[in-house]
Design brief:
The structure holds two protein chains of two kinds. By secondary structure, chain A is α/β, with parallel strands linked by helices. Chain A contains 13 helices and 17 strands. Chain A folds into two domains: 12-32 and 304-413, Alpha-Beta Complex (Aspartate Aminotransferase, domain 1); 47-300, Aspartate Aminotransferase, domain 2, CATH 3.40.640.10. The longest helix of chain A is centred in the first third of the chain and has 21 residues, at 66-86. In chain B, strand 2 (39-48) and strand 3 form a beta hairpin. Chain B has a single domain (3-141), classed as Alpha-Beta Complex (Sufe protein. Chain: A), CATH 3.90.1010.10. Chain B is globular, with a radius of gyration of 14 Å. Chain B is built from four helices and three strands; from the N terminus they run H-E-E-E-H-H-H. Chain B has a three-stranded antiparallel beta sheet with strand order 1-2-3, covered by helices on one side. The structure holds pyridoxal-5'-phosphate.
Chain lengths: 414, 142
């Protein structure tokens, strides 16, 4: 097998932008293949955050002095950058949160608690991450609404017949992931959202595994809500985004109260400002927002289309090699065009944690477990899987290294 | 063998788990679950007076979890309930300190290797959590 891909879409020199990639782990160069969990950070992002603390740190929105105005402006510029990246019609539709999880909880709380009544239905899918599942369970519990699930096919696609019959029950909302964090499946959401809207069903999109990896355009998707996390697109932790249509933001009540979100505060009651402030109580994560801004610049410089090709090539390589390995079951679509750069598999007779541990001893970081998708693992009939997930800096030789170690795993355990 | 965590003893227990399975009906039983990795086990005890006549563990888990349950099984056969409790306490202490303070649990020594991998310590303790629960049941019902 060749060590580099036939057409390198992203040059290996990109690795020099990522200081952590020079680490030696267990006497081997680090091969970081857990990018679906979080990506490493390029120097530009690290520097942007440092520069903010070194030159512009102040609380935003609170001061009239220059530094505070600068901080506010940088924070708002980050919001503008996100709006542009997602092609949102208006900047005020971008709410900063701590991550995907908090964005979904915001909707479940603010929208769900006021909209849902006993007997109302919410539609999820069997491939949702716990963060697009548990918030809905909580709101269902609180309101008496009921949950339904769109089934997943054996190959790891959403079952469109199941979707159709579930939509016929007129749920109030469909909460669905754009890309599965276990199967890698890219769901055909444009079509699904159109169908859902035809049934009068709102759609929330979990784009945690999608932003920066496949094109995400909220106007083209026509989704009602969309959430993603900064740390999965080369940005820092502690920052995420909720996009929502203006009509929903206007109708929703705040979910947290505090400074920054109010219009006027009295002793007994207060009134709120407009979105996004209405949903951002307290001092915001200014440095993290600036880091996200820089990360999106980084992604755009490489080009989402290039990243997509690069990751698809590596996924194809991983898929091809894993399918040739004895005792290995690979999950998700066989066609690399239908999936992103993550591949989950099981090795018969060896627990995924043991596989991951032996890989770690060769400096290879992969994830093992249920990947916060227990409903899906139940559906797949396994307790846990091993997941290899690539990012812009991964190389074909790293994928080869990971698969090569499986022979050693078998020797050890089988 | 270079893979230090999986020393020969642990691998042997993984391949040939001792006292695995389930006693039915059991005098005491407890399940333990690790939500982080989905590992699951059930410990069943058959008692004779204050002694464990037989202990069996049914495990669905990783190598460390299986080997730890197997090693525990070897220790528990025929010992008194209070002895079992002491073993549990000694093992926990050893997993924290890295030192075996008693020869009685010398056979558990290979498990101490797991301490180097913080995320796996829970796997080694899972069977012992079930044991603790079994013994607590015992204390409250007797
Ligand atoms: C599909 C999906 N949704 C949601 C999340 C949650 O993201 P976060 O933990 O950043 O809130 C993740 C990642 O952990 C994910 O992969």
């Amino acid at each position: 097998m060749p060590d580099s891909l036939p057409m390198a879409r992203i040059p290996d020199s990109i690795r020099q932008d990522f200081p952590v990639l020079s680490r030696i782990i267990n006497r081997h160069p680090l091969a970081y293949l857990d990018n679906a969990a979080t990506t490493q950070k390029p120097q530009s992002v690290i520097e942007a955050i440092t520069r903010f603390y070194e030159t512009s740190n102040a609380n935003s929105h609170r001061g009239v002095y220059a530094l505070s105005e600068e901080a506010s402006e940088l924070y708002e510029q980050a919001r503008g950058r996100v709006a542009q990246f997602l092609n949102a019609p208006d900047t005020h539709q971008i709410i900063f949160t701590r991550g995907t999880t908090e964005a979904i909880n915001l909707v479940a709380y603010s929208w769900g608690r006021s909209r849902l009544q006993p007997g109302d239905r919410l539609l999820l899918t069997e491939m949702e991450h716990h963060s697009n599942l548990v918030p809905w369970q909580l709101v269902a519990e609180a309101t008496g609404a009921e949950l339904d699930y769109v089934a997943v096919t054996a190959e790891g696609h959403l079952d469109l017949d199941s979707l159709a019959s579930q939509l016929a029950k007129s749920p109030k909302l469909l909460a669905v992931t754009l890309v599965s964090n276990v199967l890698g499946t890219i769901n055909p959401l444009r079509k699904i959202i159109t169908t859902a809207h035809d049934h009068g069903v709102l759609v929330l999109v979990d784009a945690a595994q999608a932003v920066g990896r496949v094109a995400v355009d909220v106007q083209e998707l026509d989704c009602d809500f969309l959430a993603f996390s900064g740390h999965k697109v080369y940005g820092p932790t502690g920052i995420g985004v909720l996009y929502a249509k203006t009509e929903h933001l206007d109708a929703m009540e705040p979910w947290q109260g505090g400074g920054g979100m109010i219009a006027k505060v009295g002793r007994d009651r207060s009134t709120w400002g407009e979105a996004p402030a209405k949903f951002e109580a307290g001092t915001p994560p200014i440095a993290a927002a600036i880091g996200l801004h820089t990360a999106l610049d980084f992604v755009e410089r490489l080009g989402v289309a290039q990243i997509r090709e690069h990751e698809r090539d590596l996924a194809e390589l991983a898929l091809g090699r894993l399918l040739e390995e004895p005792e290995v079951t690979v999950f998700g679509p066989r066609n690399p065009a239908e999936r992103t750069g993550l591949v989950s598999f099981a090795l018969a007779g060896v627990h995924p944690h043991d596989v991951a541990q032996v890989l770690d001893e060769s400096g290879i970081a992969v994830r093992a477990g249920h990947h916060c998708a227990q409903v899906l693992h139940e559906r797949l009939g396994v307790d846990a899987t091993v997941r290899v997930s690539v990012g812009v800096y991964n190389t074909a030789s790293e994928v080869h290294r990971a698969v090569d170690v499986l022979a050693e795993v078998r020797r050890l355990f089988l | 063998m270079s893979k230090s965590l999986y020393r020969d003893v642990l691998l042997d227990h993984l391949r040939h788990p001792r006292f695995s399975g389930k006693i039915e009906p059991a005098d005491r039983s407890a399940s333990a679950y690790n939500p982080l990795c989905g590992d699951e086990l059930e410990l069943t005890l058959a008692l004779e007076g204050n002694c464990i006549r037989e202990a069996r563990t049914q495990v669905r888990g990783c190598a460390v979890c299986v080997a730890s349950a197997s090693l525990m099984g070897e220790l528990l056969q025929g010992v008194s309930l209070s002895q079992a409790e002491t073993y549990g306490a000694l093992f926990r202490e050893a997993m924290t300190s890295g030192e075996l303070s008693s020869k009685d649990i010398f056979s558990l020594r290979p498990l101490l290797e797991v301490r180097k991998h913080k995320s796996r310590v829970k796997c080694a303790l899972l069977a012992w959590n079930a044991l603790e629960e079994c013994l607590q049941n015992f204390q409250t019902t007797s």
